[in-house]
């Protein structure tokens, strides 16, 4: 009886170990969809949002960026700013790298009508967001939403 109990206990432990291993592997293979909403005008906040967005992209996440208010300036082809240490990059340069990696970038629907800029002033590949599309991403349980 003790041998049977010991065997059952060992079999249960092996099964739990295998299940835990499979679940851990599945967690590592999960690719999150991320929506990063950036509206802050602080250069360091913009830089950190881009650093984290690029890092999430490097780790396999599908990254979507919504730029609002003065952060929309990052999407302008004429964008210039002070480079941030330690990599000596501007948030705009980091945004361009993110786009090269496949991120979707949009300016909010209010950005262009409330600035002196037009769609022609935006970087190639930058879209103008629509509230229904953005709301759908924000409400989609498959997305993680980060706001800066």
List the helices and strands and how they pair.
Layout (H helix, E strand, L loop, with lengths): L1 H28 L3 E6 L4 H16 L3 E6 L23 H10 L3 E4 L18 E3 L2 H9 L3 E5 L1
Parallel strand pairs: 1-2, 1-5, 2-3, 3-4
**Inertia-based shape:** globular
CATH topology of the largest domain: Hypothetical Protein Ychn, Chain: A
Beta-strand portion reads 15-25%
Biggest sheet features: 5 strands, parallel
**How many individual β-strands?**
5
Q: State mean pLDDT (0 to 100 scale).
A: 88
Quick take:
Helix content is 43%, strand content 16%.
Q: Can you walk through the features of this model?
A:
This protein has 148 residues and is an alpha/beta fold. It folds into 2 domains: 1-30; 31-147, DsrEFH-like (Hypothetical Protein Ychn, Chain: A), CATH 3.40.1260.10. 43% of the residues lie in helices and 16% in strands. The protein has a 5-stranded parallel beta sheet, with helices on both faces. The longest helix has 28 residues, at 2-29. The chain is globular. The model is unreliable at 8-26 (pLDDT under 50).
Which labels suit this protein?
single chain, 148 residues, alpha/beta, Hypothetical Protein Ychn, Chain: A, five-stranded parallel β-sheet, 4 helices, 5 strands, globular
């Amino acid at each position: 009886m003790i041998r049977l109990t010991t065997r059952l206990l060992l079999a249960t432990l092996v099964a739990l170990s295998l299940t835990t291993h499979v679940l851990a592997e599945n967690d590592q293979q999960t690719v999150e969809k991320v929506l990063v909403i950036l509206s802050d005008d602080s250069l360091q906040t913009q830089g950190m949002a881009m650093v984290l967005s690029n890092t999430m992209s490097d780790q396999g996440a599908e990254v979507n960026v919504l730029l609002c208010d003065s952060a929309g300036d990052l999407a302008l082809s004429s964008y210039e700013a002070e480079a941030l240490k330690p990599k000596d990059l501007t948030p705009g340069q980091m945004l361009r790298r993110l786009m090269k990696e496949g991120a979707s970038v949009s300016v909010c629907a209010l950005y262009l009508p409330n600035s002196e800029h037009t769609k022609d002033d935006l970087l190639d590949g930058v879209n103008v967001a629509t509230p229904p599309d953005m709301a759908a991403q924000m409400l989609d349980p498959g997305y993680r939403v980060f706001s800066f």
